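quick one, two chains, predict together pls
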Amino acid sequence: MVGIDEINYAMQNLMHRKLRSILSALSILIGIAAVFALISFGSGLQIYVDDIAKQSGTDKLFIQAKSIGAPGTDDTFYISQSDIDFVSRINGVKEISGMYMKPAEIISRDKRKYNYLSGIDIAKKEFILESMAIKMHKGRDLKKGELGKAVLGYNYQFDNKIFPRGVKTGDKVSIDGQELEVVGFYSLVGNPSDDANIYITKEQFELLYPEKKDKYSFVMIRSEPDTSPKAVADKITEKLRKHKGQEKGKEDFYVQTFDDAIQMFTNILTIIKAILVLIALISVVVASVNIMNTMYTAVLERTKEIGVMKAVGARNSDIIFIFILESGVIGMIGGVIGVLLGYLVASTGGAIAAGAGYAMLKPAFSWILIAGCILFSFLVGAGSGVMPAIRASKLHPVDALRYE
Amino acid sequence: MLSDYLSIAIRSLVKRRLRTYLTMIGIFIGIAAVVSLIGLGQGLKDAITGQFGFLSTDILSVQAASVSMSGPPGAGAPNPLQRDYIDKIDRISNVDLVFGRYFASTTIEFNDKQSIEFALSIPGGDKRKPFERMTNLKVQEGRLLTDSDRNSILLGDNYHNDKSYNGGFGKAVHAGDKILINNKPFTVVGIIEKKGSFIYDDAIWMNEQSMIDSGIVGNEDYINIIAVKVKDVSKIVETQQNIERLLRKERNVKEGEEDFTVQSPQKALESLDSTLFAVQLFITIIAGISLLVGGIGIMNTMYTAVLERRKEIGIMKSIGARNSTIFTLFSIESGFLGLVGGIIGIILGLILAYGLAFIGSLALNSDLIRANVSWWLILGALMFSFVLGTVCGVLPAVRASRLNPVDSLRSTK
């Protein structure tokens, strides 16, 4: 039976060959650190996505006009108010709001930038903010039909984020030549593009761009609580197609549920994460080869010792256990230090990303990940030790004793 | 002398065959990963770079500023380029030719199936021939457009090949076919040669006037991009400044606050290149970690070798070997481990890169997936693995060279 003596013996051997054990542990810790850091970034991003999904709810759908660029950059196709009114009468549609979108020039203190401008229907304000998963951060929101006022994205408040000097409530900015007063700021979304958006009322938008009146590029919908958004999406696609007099497969718009959009993003994320982790795992494979090497050497060095142990009654299984335990501990030490190092790398990386405006790149450290990485490195170590351990156990005691 | 060192080093490596193999496995997995990933990354970079049509050194392109990543050039610019800039730029000295081009999305319908694609304008009159020459526009079927063509278009290769065309009309388009563009009937007069670039292969090409007449262009006074060909390439910077000065005046903006860009296509590519480079660097670093781990493996093996051969080292020293001799001996051994690991790694990496590119391009039917392993990469990887082996052997070799001959002779192993 395996006892405390065997474990003691294995530990003593590791201490005895300190340099070699450290080098082997070092090789696995580097790989584990990389894997740990990559996965923690991946799950942090996943949490961010899930958070948005929770806040904006999965009962949302979007209708978007087809275009070859980003929404709002190309108005070949659009959704009109009469289309929106038509869709609002479809069964299963609880709330609906069209949104104008357009890239615009914004000037503050003689500095010029180009960002997206949205014209929103204030009557549906709560619904829109919920859909975009944002809240009021500072100042006040726009009022219905209000002209001459604008609400800006989170990043405008700070120096050197968008403008060299941050914008404050009450400041005037010029948007495509029209002077507007900033009355408030929305909360942080976590990516530089959304946090640089400009919001005005739909009335102000129509006044600024009369040619864009009634040409919505984006429509948000909330489905009734007891319906499936997917079924509502299909129904809208079919009815709106008929309403617009278009044939199946020739729609100039598409309907997407929030789930679909999130799902697509999640899928891409998973693929990228998997590729990166696979590449990082290569170094773990190399490390396991190193451990195997170390263990073969240990077996060779301790041939005489193994002979003695066998001569005084050690069984093959005892020898196997000792060597596998040794290599497993090497792996585990590497794993523990690797997780610590990975934690440092990921936290630093996350802080740098947040500084650059990508607050969504925030690593998440779960206990499962930490325990999993340590267990994994123990298993890699133990697995690498299996073959050397078998060789050790099969040594013939007499030959081994004679070995010089 | 050196050949003696070499033969001793090789003999010691061969003697401990298993350990040598295992150590080299570490190196060659790392080198194979790095070589294949850089090779695939380079292939992707080449493919993407190749997507950007004409890249002559005598061209400047003018675009209005817009939010970044919003789509095709000039899409959604708050303050687009005016059509009358063309004639004004034309009067600047050293300007040979000026083309204004429209880019717009439109519906295209064939075989009762519709999709949305983008249309590009071809300039007419005496600018047509130089434009065709510059963009190397040739047809594989039918003919190119002429000034008298009204309701005629050219299509990219992907419409001709129903398999690669996304969405697909379910039927290949040929020269002479009738097609609906923006719900108006057009005749396909030619299919452009395959260029392996979406700008060519996915596009609908039409005469400027037909693009305006069919209502695809929203406002004919606003142009998406202006391409300027200069006469004397050596004065291109001066010409660029002159165009910038003209447009600043036209658009009433101050220097440093331009809401437009004038740049050579190479400049535009450089920014894309740096993004791709960053991605490639990141992946290489992650793959490179395995090389570092392999290096640690070499160090470990060499320390073990020093320990095992203490007696041998003692004998060599006692018959006159100097510290430097011992050092060289062990350095050669570890360098050799790295080099051979590197050679195997490069061979594996080449197989992996080209194999993956082949499978990937078949599976995804995309021209973007290809491998390009340059001689520099091979040479670099080889050098690197040798240097890595040698460097990782330095500490063990130093330890070996400093052994006290008397103590080493007395040691049991």
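The longest strand of chain A covers residues 93-108.
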